[in-house]
């Protein structure tokens, strides 16, 4: 492990600001919970999703017996966001402790954070193209990981990530939080236990993204390591619509750039496909044939898919269709009925311009299906009441989390296969065991991308 850490420092990102190895505030500051039971966490990437979801997700367990943790450090490639991240955590602890707290450390280079021996685990809340590389580096440094979905930018990177995690004793939880929501677990149990008969079709509703974005090059903001932010992807001019807002934490432009992600098919699709696989009992495999079409922008900067409809046939004959033509959610259709599930608070737009109508988050072709009792000898889902809480539990118990690396990779790879079918407009034939595309060199070339030096996966 020491040699790995030396390698991190030796290959440090050019231009990164040296952060040193400041001491971490003593655990005793946080109360009576034994320091040996407290998990010290570093947050890598402290923008929109980290502030809205990941940091609050672990902060809620500070001082909670059995799940206690503290965010000891934050890291970002924007110096301004490092300071805002430190303030975010410090303010949260000030509120919890009832006394001013200024103990959160800041880093501009994730390798220096990983090399800190007092950090036990990390949240990785960066853009998609950094996920696999940072996860591999984190487990190599002996850290447990909460990894935002999707698991990777390409299928090959995802396989590397899953293999590296599986070869260690590290706990990696993918942020597929629908696995910790009651209505999704309930729907999966009903489907897996045959309440709608044999599943024949699955429909997943996902939106597309709009075109737009200003491609005009701009000066790189002071204090922002843009080269490291591009990472393994090609060098292109900086413009705010390609990256993230200069102020605030609104939805960033990179989500609409294929250089950094595939768009909604992986951004939200990783959630829904994972849930669909859970109900289909195909969590560790994938489709064998994929096809479909999509509209892509013809102008502007943003280039991820717009409206689309794609299909994936599984070895058992089940066909999964993904499209914005369906309500946003998952619908399993069996020979004896159907079950639909979505997130709370979802709405369905109307064609008349009337106010959007709420979508009932769990429903079935026969409402009595939803009242069915799952017997003790039937299939019961892995019980998790909270995705971040489950991660903390598993760090202590060393048991597999509800969304481990392999399952996250399989969901992501399925989404990326649908993207490959969109891009090529080919029928894609996939072998889930070898993870190879058969008989199509053009489609197969999209399984990986060139990794720019020095940002390869080590």
State the distance separating the first and last CA atoms.
14 Å
Count up the helices: 13
Main structural class: alpha/beta
The helical percent reads: 25-40%
CATH topology of the largest domain: Dihydrodipicolinate Reductase, domain 2
Q: What is the overall silhouette? A: globular
**How many strand elements?**
17
Query: Could you state the CATH homologous superfamily of the largest domain?
Result: Dihydrodipicolinate Reductase, domain 2
Question: How many whole angstroms does the radius of gyration measure?
Answer: 22 Å
Mean pLDDT: 92
* Order of H and E elements: HEHEHEHEHEHEHEHHHEEEEEEEEHHEEH
Q: What would CATH call the architecture of the largest domain?
A: 2-Layer Sandwich
CATH class of the largest domain: Alpha Beta
* Stretches with pLDDT under 50, minimum 5 residues: 1-22
Descriptive overview:
This protein has 458 residues and is of the alpha/beta class. It has two domains: 29-177, Rossmann fold (3-Layer(aba) Sandwich); 178-211 and 255-382 and 405-446, Dihydrodipicolinate Reductase, domain 2 (2-Layer Sandwich), CATH 3.30.360.10. Helices cover 29% and strands 16% of the residues. The chain is built from 13 helices and 17 strands. The chain has helices at residues 2-10, 48-59, 79-97, 110-115, 131-140, 155-166, 182-192, 226-230, 264-267, 269-280, 387-397, 405-424, 441-444, and strands spanning 39-44, 69-75, 105-107, 121-124, 144-147, 172-174, 199-205, 289-294, 308-313, 319-323, 329-334, 337-341, 347-348, 357-358, 362-364, 428-431, 436-437. A nine-stranded mixed sheet has the order 15-12-11-7-10-9-8-16-17. Helix 6 runs antiparallel to helix 12. The longest helix has 20 residues, at 405-424. The protein is globular. Mean pLDDT is 92; it is low at 1-22. Residues 385-457 form the Gfo/Idh/MocA-like oxidoreductase bacterial type C-terminal domain. Residues 1-18 form the signal peptide. It comes from Candidatus Sulfuritelmatomonas gaucii. One of its GO terms (molecular function) is nucleotide binding. This is Oxidoreductase domain protein.
């Amino acid at each position: 492990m020491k040699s790995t850490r030396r390698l991190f420092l030796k290959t440090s990102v050019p231009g990164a600001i040296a952060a040193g190895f400041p001491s971490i505030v003593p655990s005793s500051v946080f109360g009576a919970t034994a320091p040996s039971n407290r998990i010290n966490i570093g947050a890598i990437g402290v923008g929109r999703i980290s502030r809205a979801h990941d940091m609050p997700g672990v902060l809620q367990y500070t001082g909670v017996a059995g799940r206690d943790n503290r965010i000891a450090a934050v890291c970002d490639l924007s110096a301004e966001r490092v300071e805002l991240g430190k303030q975010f955590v410090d303010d949260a602890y000030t509120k919890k402790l009832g006394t001013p707290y200024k103990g959160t450390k800041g880093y501009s280079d994730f390798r220096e954070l990983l090399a800190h021996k007092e950090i036990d685990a990390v949240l990785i809340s960066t853009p998609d193209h950094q996920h696999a590389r940072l996860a591999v580096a984190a487990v190599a440094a002996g850290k447990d990981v909460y990894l935002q979905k999707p698991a990777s930018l390409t299928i090959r990177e995802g396989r590397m990530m899953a293999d590296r995690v599986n070869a260690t004793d590290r706990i990696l939880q993918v942020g597929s939080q629908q696995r910790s929501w009651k209505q999704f677990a309930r729907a999966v149990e009903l489907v897996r236990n045959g309440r709608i008969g044999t599943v024949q079709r699955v429909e997943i509703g996902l939106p597309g993204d709009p075109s737009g974005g200003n491609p005009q090059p701009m000066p790189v903001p002071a204090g922002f390591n843009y080269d490291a932010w591009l990472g393994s992807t090609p060098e292109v001019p900086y413009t705010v619509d390609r990256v993230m807002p200069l102020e605030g934490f609104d939805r960033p432009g990179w989500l609409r750039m294929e250089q950094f992600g595939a768009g909604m098919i992986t951004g939200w699709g990783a959630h829904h496909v994972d849930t669909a696989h859970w109900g289909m009992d195909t969590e560790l495999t994938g489709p064998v044939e994929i096809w479909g079409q999509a509209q892509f922008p013809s102008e502007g900067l943003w280039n991820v898919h717009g409206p689309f409809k794609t299909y994936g046939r599984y070895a058992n004959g089940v066909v999964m269709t993904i499209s914005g033509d369906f309500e946003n959610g998952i619908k399993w259709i069996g020979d004896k009925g159907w079950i639909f599930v979505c997130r709370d608070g979802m709405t369905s737009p109307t064609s008349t311009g009337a106010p959007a109508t709420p979508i009932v988050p769990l429903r079935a072709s026969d409402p009595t299906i939803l009242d069915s009792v799952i017997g003790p000898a039937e299939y019961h889902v892995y019980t998790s009441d909270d995705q971040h809480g489950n991660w903390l539990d598993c760090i202590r118990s060393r048991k597999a989390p509800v969304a481990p690396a392999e399952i996250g990779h399989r969901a992501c790879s399925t989404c990326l296969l649908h993207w490959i079918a969109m891009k090529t407009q080919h029928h894609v034939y996939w072998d889930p065991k070898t993870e190879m595309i058969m008989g199509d060199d053009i489609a197969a070339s999209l399984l990986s991308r060139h990794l720019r030096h020095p940002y390869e996966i080590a």
